[in-house]
Design a protein that fits this description.
Length: 181
């Protein structure tokens, strides 16, 4: 019996020695900026009580940090105005809604094309933001981002972090990224 247990343990040890562990590179701290290039194009608007649900598309570019290139966003937005009567009297142009007290949640799927640390490819990011209105000139944005997938030299890139807006409508991101070997 002891010989069988020893033999099984030896086989397990030999098998485990043939499996090589895979290690990712050490995550690097990253930070940079991006900016929208086009005004959002709004999709159909649905109303549900004190909520307005819509989608929008826009484009922009990452212009500093390890990410350099352009992006396209597809965003789902849920705005909560607190009162169904407010929703009934909203102006036709959604760009004017920022002066009306509300709270919004954005879910963004971003497709980036460019380079990260000099490596070319595309990647898909999921971003979320919470926004409080009214604002003077630009929403007070703060949110999170995570890289979902990539192609080309970015196929093995992973990362996550936070983002927010700064004066002048420039958006700032920071977090960590790393490439799998």
């Amino acid at each position: 019996m002891k010989k069988i247990v020893f033999l099984i343990a030896a086989v397990i040890l030999l098998i485990s020695m043939t499996i090589l562990p895979a290690f990712a590179t050490t995550p690097s701290a990253v930070s940079g900026t991006f900016i929208g290039l086009t005004y959002p194009v709004y999709g159909p608007i649905r109303i549900a009580g004190a909520n307005v649900i819509t989608s929008l598309t826009s484009t922009g570019q990452f212009n500093s940090g390890p990410m350099i290139g352009t992006y396209e966003d597809y965003t789902n937005v849920a705005l909560h105005f607190g009162d169904p009567e407010t929703v009934k009297t909203l102006p036709a142009n959604p760009m004017t809604w920022r002066s009306i007290p509300s709270f919004a949640v954005w879910h963004i799927e971003r497709t980036f094309t460019g380079t990260v640390e000099g490596k070319p490819g595309t990647l898909t990011m999921h971003m979320e933001a919470k926004i409080g209105y009214p604002t003077v000139t630009y929403p007070s944005l703060e949110g999170t981002w995570v890289i979902i997938s990539g192609t080309g030299d970015l196929a093995n890139l992973h990362g996550q972090g936070t983002w927010w807006n700064s004066p002048g409508q420039v958006l700032v991101y920071e977090g960590q990224m790393h490439f799998d070997p």
